[in-house]
Specification:
Layout: E1 6-10, H1 21-27, E2 33-36, H2 41-53, H3 61-77, E3 80-83, H4 90-104, E4 110-114, E5 125-130, H5 135-142, E6 147-150, H6 157-167, H7 174-187, E7 212-216, E8 222-226, H8 236-243, E9 251-252, E10 258-260, E11 265-268, E12 274-277, E13 280-282, E14 287-307, H9 311-321, E15 331-337, E16 351-360, H10 368-375, E17 386-387, E18 395-406, E19 413-415, E20 421-423, E21 463-467, E22 473-479, E23 482-488, H11 492-501, H12 504-510, E24 519-524, E25 529-534, H13 555-561, E26 563-567, H14 568-571
Helix pairs in contact: 1-3, 3-4, 5-6, 6-7
Length: 579
Amino acid sequence: MTRRPLLIGNASGFYGDRFGALREMLTGGPLDVVTGDYLAELTMLILGRDRLKNPDLGYAKTFLRQLEEGLGLAQERGVRIVANAGGLNPAGLAGAVRALAAKAGVPVTVAHVEGDDLMPYSEGALTANAYLGGAGITACLRAGADVVVTGRVTDAALVSGPAAWWFDWAPDDHDRLAGAVVAGHVLECGTQATGGNYSFFTAHDVRRPGFPLAEISEDGSSVITKHPGTGGVVTAGTVTAQLLYETQGVRYLGPDVTARLDTVRLSGDGPDRVRVSGVLGEPPPSSLKVGVTRIGGWRNEVVFVLTGLDIEAKARLVRSQLSDALEGVATVDWTLARTDHEDAPTEETASALLRLVVRDPSPDRVGRELTSAAIELALASYPGFHVTTPPGPAQPYGVFTSAVIPADVVPHTAVLPDGTRLPILSAGALPPSPRASNAGGAVVSAPPVFEERGLGRSPSSGTTRAPLGAVAGARSGDKGGDANIGVWVESDAAWDWLHRTLTVETLQDLLPETAGLPVTRHALPNLRALNFTLTGILGDGVASGHRFDPQAKALGEWLRARHLDIPNHLLSAPEGTGS
């Protein structure tokens, strides 16, 4: 008998997301499961430093505060809660949830998933965590858990795990699992799927977007939507933007399944409803990703304000005056941001910012002695000397790296509500199931990737120099030291132009900061999208603060603001038209 769709929603996209979202999701409409994603590369470093101070910590404390009200609401409504808020200490968080439930008199059962923590890992590592799949979550729910907390699982596992429980999927139901993974990827960042951080935000009211939910069917297809009456919008565009976020290549590798992003199809299913179908899955890789954080050293920064005339000369003067103080510092980065305007009507718009960032293994070389040297210039440097903030002491910075490890050596364990410890075998080690949806996930050939350079076919209507964002949306983000930019358009005519025009070389021309970096382009024709991976642009990752935009969140918007020759027939087409 076919089971009704699973209603699963998201109430957190990061550690620090909207505090009231859990209550909103539990009271805004029906749900079977509510999830929360609290972990990111930077979060693991924060939790690692918490654990150094107190070994009993290492989890997302905000989640416990949300449960003070949310636990009773979920129990009343029969909603299961699944969250990766356990961070580095899922057992500790599970115990804290039990204590909270007992104090509040809420009769819930709690389970947790562990085994991802690989510490001690290597010399200097602060944290080291394997990205687990959803099978441990599935086991906990099958054992009757009302609340499941995990450590480092993949973000999408928070959805694929409950879906496998709800429909009793086999581990090699690859197509179904891949469909759930894609739905999970859409939900994982919360309101980014409902109009948040959306290129075409001016077309909708996105002042307070509602959090997304998915109606997942037994065949793995889903409908992305939100509770009635909540803000924001769900369109093919908002879903496409999130599908492109932080993905690399057409194969989305995961511990449970490899999802083929080039097979995803989107279609309208009514207002604020987008159907996701056609997703094909392949077997998962035999290895797991491991995220490792380290304290990379010490950093400091000073931002000088340069106002009015002779901006470049003022910057040269400061740099020369500090050259002796900077001698011997491991890394020195100067950046001049020309935010000034000629004949400006306000002092702020007449000013530019000169940013000095220093890093060193020793806090002494980049501490107060260095910042004091900068401040001592206050009466002896360029006219109008001042800085944005007072000088501060050196601060530790983190470095994120990733590695791979054989999946079968990671002790993935589901700790059930009664305390039973259930080992979870890696998906690659399990025998095939005769009822799998795609007979083991046969590899499907990828569509061709167009790499010719040029401006495409020139229409008879000619071209106009205009920003790429006049016809294309974009979404960008970070993966360690790499960044990705997904670019999509909303009509077949625009896609024909985009895939011919936006080559790797053209992108590097538009974004000079990418010159010399390895850049890879992937085509996703079903989404009318291109996805670029920019290797190494973020240095040691967000925790090191290497760039002005250390998580590459706005890289896509910079690309959209760059001008190139666009066919006039595309510029005249209204947004959202398709063929």
